[in-house]
Amino acid sequence: MSKHDGRTPIPPSTRRRFVTRAETLVEGLGGDGARFREDLAAKRELWNESRPEYSVHGTGSPPEELPDGPSLPPSLERARRESAQAEAAEVEAARAKALRGGATLSDILIFRARERSLKRGGHTMPQAREGMTVVQVAEVYFRESPFAAADEWHGMVNDLSTEWWPRQFYPNWIGSGKHPADPFVAACLIYNPLEVPTTIISSLRPVLFDAYVSDLASSQYPSGTFWESAFNNIVDSIRNALERGDCLTVEMIDKMRAAACMSGAQATSGADTLQPVIPILPGMTSTDLREMESEVLVYLRHHDHFNDDVRALHRDGMKIAPIARLVGLSRRAVQNILGT
């Protein structure tokens, strides 16, 4: 069984339809089961050819405790954990070197970037060896890093989930880039599908979706537009660097990152203000909507744009009374925002 917080996370009828679909595929009703197993076998074969060191065989039973998210092949999970531990040790060694005064400015910049990444639970690109081009560093990362392999695995799992639980019939409540069926599909790739409990369909609570108010009818989330533009920009930067024969430097990475972010921001600049959107799912009740209140409060704590704008007006010299008239609040409310 997968772990969750014990509360009713989503309308029962919505999750039940995901589970029923999983049961149908496992039991082979209507021919879908055979096609599903064939699809799983084909994806396993492709994965094993691409990542033989992390091969999966679709045999055996899963462990009693499974994660809320999609499982990784056991060998990949071990490699990713060991890599994270090794990187943490490298960062600690770099910290000690910096404290002894033996680090160059480049060493310190790299150390700080890797430290920030580890604090976020992430990882970094491998350090460039002398003479390596940007593309060569990227090739090493995608060939050797277990984190890159994990990204590839999650992408394959998500594609399968979307194919067999199409979004027009199975609404997503856990955020873009994820799918409620991902835990079940990942386990079916690793273990014998007949041994995988259908109850591991995601039990996570609904999350708010970000959307620009002028973009609510769009089929693509604003974050997708941002990252698509940023990705295309950085690919162009890498291609140009390759053609020039440039070697990777910290300064070049910083410039590429800044240019990519600027490109993403420009791609979404024509839309209106970013707003949190509550996903409306079939079977939702007023109780379900009230349970989303905690999500809204968390969002407001981390995306306090309105209060930030009020404070910025005051820093720019605007008095409390004009601010109150401009934003439609009482003077007391503005004072509370300003902390005066």
Q: In terms of structural class, how would the helical and strand content be classed?
A: mainly alpha
Label the overall shape: globular
Number of helices: 14
Helix-strand pattern: HHHHHHHEHHEHHHHH
Q: What is the end-to-end distance?
A: 51 Å
Mean pLDDT, to the nearest integer, reads 76
Q: Number of folding domains?
A: 3
Briefly, what is this?
The protein is mainly alpha-helical and 340 residues long.
Features:
340 residues, mainly alpha, 3 domains, two-stranded antiparallel ribbon, 14 helices, disordered N terminus
Structure description:
- By secondary structure, the protein is mostly helical.
- It has three domains: 1-206, no CATH class; 212-276, no CATH class; 277-338, no CATH class.
- It is built from 14 helices and two strands; from the N terminus they run H-H-H-H-H-H-H-E-H-H-E-H-H-H-H-H.
- It has helices spanning 12-27, 32-50, 74-99, 105-119, 134-144, 146-164, 182-190, 222-244, 250-267, 286-291, 293-302, 305-315, 320-327, 331-338; strands at residues 209-212, 274-277.
- Strands 1-2 form a two-stranded antiparallel ribbon.
- Helix 1 crosses helix 2, helix 2 (32-50) packs antiparallel against helix 6 and helix 3 crosses helix 4.
- The radius of gyration is 24 Å and the shape is globular.
Note the topology.
Elements: H1 12-27, H2 32-50, H3 74-99, H4 105-119, H5 134-144, H6 146-164, H7 182-190, E1 209-212, H8 222-244, H9 250-267, E2 274-277, H10 286-291, H11 293-302, H12 305-315, H13 320-327, H14 331-338
Antiparallel strand pairs: 1-2
